[in-house]
Amino acid sequence: MVRLDYRVTFFSLAITLLCVRIDASIHEYFGEQFVSKGNAFVVHGGSEGIYSSTPSLNESSSGDSFIRFEKIIFRRPQELSNFSSGAIHAILFEVVDRETIGGSAYGGQRAVCCTADLAKLGVCKQGQIIYRPSTNSPGWPQVYDTSFDVDKAETILQPRSIQITKTGMYNLYFIHCDPNLKDVVLEGKTIWKNPTGYLPGRMAPLMNFYGFMSLAFVVLGIFWFSQYARFWKEVLPLQNIITLVITLGMFEMALWYFDYAKFNETGVRPTGITVWAVSSGTVKRTISRLIILIVTMGYGVVRPTLGGLTSRVILLGTTFFVASEVLELVENVGATSDLSGRAILFFGLPVAILDAFFILWIFKSLSLTLTKLQARRMAAKLDIYRKFTNALAVTVIVSVGWICYELYFKSNDVYNERWQNAWIIPAFWQVLSFSLLCVICALWAPSQNSMRYAYSSEDASEDFDGEDSLTLIKPLSLSSKDVRRPSELRSVESSNGLLSHGDNEEGKTQ
After folding, report:
1. Domain GOST seven transmembrane spans what residues (predicted)?
2. Which of 20, 203, 484, 497 is most enclosed, with most CB atoms within 10 A?
């Protein structure tokens, strides 16, 4: 749960993403230029976790895993085609074997391309890339190459399919060491497949998870909507908002499931479904946090409105929505490879800060509301708020512990080596938010006694406005002359009573 005018920015970003073709397990290259990295020129071809297939399976089998090169073409300008070139390499390796790529002479700077010093040592041939056979996987890394002939403006890397017989995080790079080929561009595509389909390895378990969560929301929805229909005359405004959150949750889980199912079937992520799933989830999380905040402020229970705090609540909610939307779009839309942990950490930090602000404001408001209820001796409302406080406290403690683990996990998994467990992180937040939603549904379920928790005219004498803000306002000091003791008030009242009685008697005598 815990996780104007910005609309133009958001819709512009959404339209831009919809205009771009989004692929993931099918990595397409459109005029990709080589980038200088050290003494080599590199194009990153992809990075995905892939589960192994049985060696006896072949490419036509439905349960195999492979990486296939299709129509990989390298092009250079026609005016620079008057010479034959050095080799252009495609190197595919598992991330645990990354140290087998490159080398250095006499402990100096590590280089990918063979240097003159290394060539003198007989380690490699100058102008070629440096790699050593893996001690963990015989035959790896896989290296394929091609080169330009004289007067040829393009060269083709022969199509081939590499069967994956070992589970791991695989990286593909296109590399050359010839400075004369700095203007070469890459076109074509590679196809990456897992045994169960085209979903990247870290995402594959999430399809079944979202299917399970869809069923869970359906069960919760049946309970809530049946209560809502039975006691619709007793429904509170707060219960209408909870109904909206449940509906959004059902749509979100269903959209994520169909998004992953389509992705797994075709290898091309359906951009429209992904954007809708991301947006519905962000709206649900934003409304969920705002519900918790306004409930702790006592809205609809001990106060009819939020008063002057409305604009601040809307501002916090809008900021959280924008930050969460950007994070989810970056993580789920337009990524052709598994993003690095540091990239997700960068975009996730603003969301974590806003969540912390939500938590501080929620517990400050909750403390004030509990104090008011206790002072007014509203037993029924106080009991439900105490149960809600216990649920929130448990949720926050678990959330803080999980956030610490998540930060540790992502900051120490630079190369995505623990990709098989990465799906647990988003799954945990979904389970935690669903659990808190179930608690809220149990506490505020529509019933024949719902109205006893609603705001009534008897609560109007209490002024809650301005006390839930995080801004501290210094109260005005009163002089001792302006403050009267109770004994003085009683003496004044008695004297007023005597004067009034005397006047009445005088009137009667007259």
Report:
1. 205-450
2. 203
Q: Alpha-carbon distance 47 to 414, whole Å?
A: 12
How far is C-alpha 462 from the geometric centre of its chain's CA atoms?
40
Q: Domains, the chain, ranges and CATH?
A: 26-193 (2.60.120), 206-461 (1.20.1070)
For residue 335, count other CB atoms closer than 10 A to its CB.
16
* Cα angle value 219/220/225 (rounded, 5°): 105
Write down the pTM of the prediction.
0.75
3-state class (DSSP) for residue 461: helix
Rounded to whole angstroms, how far apart are CA atoms 428 and 408?
A: 16
Cα dihedral 221/211/421/263 (nearest 10): -130
Q: What is the DSSP string of 279-328?
A: HHHHHHHHHHHHHHHHHHTTBTTTBS--GGGHHHHHHHHHHHHHHHHHHH
Q: Are 112 and 72 within 8 A, CB to CB?
A: no
Which of 75, 84, 44 has its CA nearest to residue 184? 75
d(CA 282, CA 289): 11
In the prediction, which pLDDT does 142 show?
Answer: 93
Q: How far is CA 144 from the centre of its chain?
A: 37
The encoded tokens of residue 120 equal 């003198």
pLDDT at 126: 81
**CA atoms of 374 and 389, how far apart (whole Å):** 14
Predicted confidence at residue 332, as pLDDT, reads: 78
Reduced to 3 states (helix: H, G, I; strand: E, B; else coil), residue 208 is: helix
Digit-coded pLDDT (tens) for 338-363: 455 566 667 778 888 898 889 899 98
d(CA 439, CA 94): 45
Angstrom CA distances, 261 to 53, 85, 167, 197, stand at: 20, 44, 22, 9
pLDDT value of residue 21: 33
Query: From CA 248, how far away is CA 242, in angstroms rounded?
Result: 10
pLDDT less than 50: residues of the chain: 1-24, 57-60, 336-338, 461-467, 471-483, 485-486, 488-510
Structure-token pair, residue 481: 């002359």
First and final C-alpha spacing in the chain: 76
DSSP letter, residue 131: B
Instruction: Specify the pairing of strand 66-75 against strand 160-163.
Output: antiparallel
